[in-house]
Amino acid sequence: xxxxxxxxxxxxxxxxxxxxxxxxxxxxxxxxxxxxxxxxxxxxxxxxxxxxxxxxxxxxxxxxxxxxxxxxxxxxxxxxxxxxxxxxxxxxxxxxxxxxxxxxxxxxxxxxxxxxxxxxxxxxxxxxxxxxxxxxxxxxxxxxxxxxxxxxxxxxxxxxxxxxxxxxxxxxxxxxxxxxxxxxxxxxxxxxxxxxxxxxxxxxxxxxxxxxxxxxxxxxxxxxxxxxxxxxxxxxxxxxxxxxxxxxxxxxxxxxxxxxxxxxxxxxxxxxxxxxxxxxxxxxxxxxxxxxxxxxxxxxxxxxxxxxxxxxxxxxxxxxxxxxxxxxxxxxxxxxxxxxxxxxxxxxxxxxxxxxxxxxxxx
Length: 363
Prior knowledge:
Elements: E1 2-6, H1 15-25, E2 29-33, H2 39-47, E3 52-56, H3 59-62, H4 67-86, E4 90-94, H5 106-119, E5 122-125, H6 130-138, E6 145-147, H7 163-170, E7 177-182, H8 191-199, E8 206-211, H9 221-229, E9 235-238, H10 244-253, E10 256-258, H11 268-275, E11 280-283, E12 296-299, H12 306-316, H13 319-330, H14 335-355
Parallel strand pairs: 1-2, 1-3, 3-4, 4-5, 5-6, 7-8, 7-10, 8-9, 10-11, 11-12
């Protein structure tokens, strides 16, 4: 079986690498198609005609820096889809998020995504909660979906060191309650609300660490957050990309990872935290709402003081035990399982395609 995965070049998410390696272990020949005007045709010229094109992160296929380029890229993508479909290629789409956060042309992306949802053979999401959410957004039937869990990150990142050593290395008190936020800093991630809520906690031993590179689309955000945190010596901020070896130290040093997003379907940061034995503090949004309560402090994002109440609970909770539960929960989702489920979907799609009459081939 030959599969082409659409991907994007980035330094912060190993999802594509781990999926590719696990599928290869199942005997699937995998080629990667990077964003551009000729994404699929270029990949097919390099790897040959695939049996399946597996789409990930749809926004690079539709969005560009200017409106005219956005229109051209989208039109060319669907022309490529038609060409490959006429050649008998089938399409599977894993929906990580319904929209690219911060995109200037969200309406265009949504319209293109809804068209794509009508054209693919199967859609994959990472949890049961996501099925009706995505189906409603893209206006398709829930019967077109399969659920494949997101694999854990245990073993990919550097080993997490001893907590006492990590705290000594970072200059943190050994008895502190340490809350960590990490990842790209974007408006929807709620870091401003996190800092505001933390400053209201009258707990002298608490610490808040904020790590991440501010996104270029929100240049005003970093100065705002720095100003918010300036008066509280318990808060440490690093506005930069954190290499994996350093991130492992911060994960070891913290007690809980806070992800107070205002919108989310799937969170790689939440999965990384759980993979390395750290509970999360997060809203009940998308797949995060399915995390076991023994491994997460979850709150209703529609409640005005939901984050405040959750943080108060977190600072008094048995976070060490919760972290152990979180790790055990995520270890049940190895990439071998992800590959097996994904491969089964490929086979089902191809088997159905062989059963179609020629007149049905484009339906």
